[in-house]
Amino acid sequence: MLDQIADATRLGDGRVVVANAGSAELRVFDPSGQHLATWGRAGEGPSDFSRLVHVETWPGDSIAAWYTGSAGIAVYDGQGRFGRTFALRNGESVGGPRPVGMAAGSILSVRPDDEADSAIVEIWDGDGVLSVSLGTHPAVERVAITDGRGAQYNEPLGYGRQLVTGFWGDLVVVSPTTHYEIHAFRGDGGLHRVVRRNHVLRSPSEAHREAYVEEGMAHILATPGLPEQMVEMARTQFHRIPFADYFPAFSSVLGDATGHLWVQEYEYPGEDRPGTLWTVFDPEGHVLRFVETPEKLQIYEIGEDYILGRVADELGVESIQLWSLDRSEGTASGTQ
User: What is the spatial order of strands in the sheet that 52-58 belongs to?
Assistant: First the structure.
């Protein structure tokens, strides 16, 4: 029933709204998983979607869904009635900034800067008007490599820097992953807090390089009918990519409904854990506990007493799972 799940959110009455990108629809389920309704459809009309990317609760018991194409944000009420569509406006033109998160009627966006390997982070209001810029920050680091025929490509540095962003209560996190430092900004654009945790940086080894190549080649080999010559060219190209001096210090951040910040710890290649490890910081920035979630669970939302996410089985069949969260023990148990 679900195909290419892009996101999901839980409403106050327990219903779960899933952004099903495969059909460009919002699908609504009750807490037991029973399908209740479908909102929107694929198309170019005011209430239609081209490709869904994100869905989030919106003020007034509404739902906001972002879709690509015209980079629009559509707002529906809690019963699925279409309200309006708007886009983030950069000057007099529409487009450019793309949302990466929504919270309490505000929209967080990241767009490439003219300067290489950096990005501009901005906050927008519910009408698509820029509220504040959080400045320019180091983003994905790219390097120029040349193939055997002399053609040049810009590729991300192996195990290189990323820029992570997200809402943390009333704050916005904007941090590169080079060091274990969480930078939290206020809504007026000022830096409010820097949270650090002791962390020893590690350098990639030759075994890590091989793991990097094999992971990249897995996607190439999954493409049916590729000539052997193209496969070998791809393998050679992966071997040409230089590596960062150190692994990232962490992977991602996610704010929960109680103002806590979950930081996903970096998982080193070839050292797989049985689950995904998170460090949970309280609203003041103190380490509260460590929580391990199922490895294959892609988390979309963390509520007061639940975790909502996506799982795909060995055959690629997708499902949404809702896990109960016991904050006193830092454990989670769930059902789909």
Answer: 52-58, 62-67, 72-76, 82-87
- Residue recorded with tokens 């009635």: 81
* Whole-angstrom distance, CA of residue 201 vs CA of residue 264: 16
| CB 265, CB 177: distance < 8 Å | no
Burial 217-249 (b: 16+ CB within 10 A, else e): eeeeeeeeeeeeeeeeebeebbeebebbebbbb
pLDDT tens-digit readout, 42-86: 877 777 787 888 999 999 899 999 887 556 899 999 999 999 988
Half-sphere exposure of 314 (CA within 13 A, CB side): 0
Q: What is the pLDDT of residues 284-311, one digit of tens each?
A: 999 999 999 998 899 999 999 999 999 9
Q: Which two tokens stand for residue 143?
A: 């390097």
Phi, psi of 115 (to 5 degrees): -80, 140
**Are 94 and 77 contacting, i.e. CB atoms less than 8 angstroms apart?**
no
- In DSSP terms, which residues pair with 193 in a beta bridge? 184
User: Which residues are registered as beta bridge partners of 301?
Assistant: 308
Q: What is the DSSP string of 22-37?
A: TTTEEEEE-TTS-EEE
Query: Cα separation of 283 and 263, whole Å?
Result: 13
Over the chain (336 residues), what is each successive 10-residue block's mean pLDDT?
A: 92 95 93 92 77 91 82 89 85 62 92 85 93 94 79 86 96 97 96 96 93 88 86 87 95 97 94 88 95 93 96 90 83 51
* CA 55 and chain centroid, separation: 12
Q: How far apart are CA 25 and CA 44, in angstroms?
A: 13
